[in-house]
Amino acid sequence: MSHAHHHNHHHHHHSELNKLFVVGIALNVCFVFVEAIIGLWVNSLSLLTDAGHNLGDVAGLVMVVIATRIAKKKPTTKYTYGFGKTTVLVALINAVTLLVMVGAIGWEAVGRFNDSHPVQGQLIAWVAAVGIIVNGVTALLFFKNQHDDLNAKGAYLHMAADALVSLGVLISGIVIFYTHWFWLDAAISLIIIVVIVVSSWSLLKDSIRLTLDGVPSGINIDGIRHYLMNVKGVASLHDLHIWAMSTNATAMTVHLVVPDRIENSSIAQINSELHAQFNIDHTTIQIEKISGDKCGQHCES
Fold this sequence. Notes:
This protein has 301 residues and is of the alpha+beta class. Helix content is 65%, strand content 11%.
């Protein structure tokens, strides 16, 4: 049996991401405070909706930082794989929380269609313009890491969506200022809800899959199977399992059936190739020496 670990890269990766999340939190806390105060002052539901959404994103970023710190803890006798899965749970909580929040906002927005309140379109537009800058800058912080980490992907998608939402609020503020169509404030809130649901749906699906130990997106399981079956000396394989240990670390176990024997150097090469080609960070390979005609119904060929 062979085991392989590749941890150093992920310790550095976690540290770099943590710094980005802290910067993102600082930027958005300041903006949420200003947006909420002005939203209450001018009685703008679109600003309050956007502030609530941004507050949810800030809470999500805080949870990611906490989960990342927990994930660094060493494995124990009770948690032998460590605590990396907390980052997956946070991604799931963030997605569910956002979807629950939009339900409450939607209820308020529908009610306001029948009772539109006068709002100051010019002030709404100025606040939204600041929102575009803050959310745009925050999204760019996570752009590079969005394909390597589920929480970074979630942060990037939410902040990019927030920037688009702020653009919509900016346009509505300008229109309200010139036309006094105050119902637009509630309409923009409903559009924001649609954007939030669309941007959160893929995150929800990915986080549920990882929580249920499904194969992470971006992992080519057919390519891995094809590679293993073409390793010299491997007759067949079975019990191939791939799952997420955290939002950016993947584990794999497999039983390789060999008619004769396989060199230890070959196993080391397999571990190296699985990491380099397929982004597998923790491999466990069980070697079974058995004749091909006795392989059994579970073997793959």
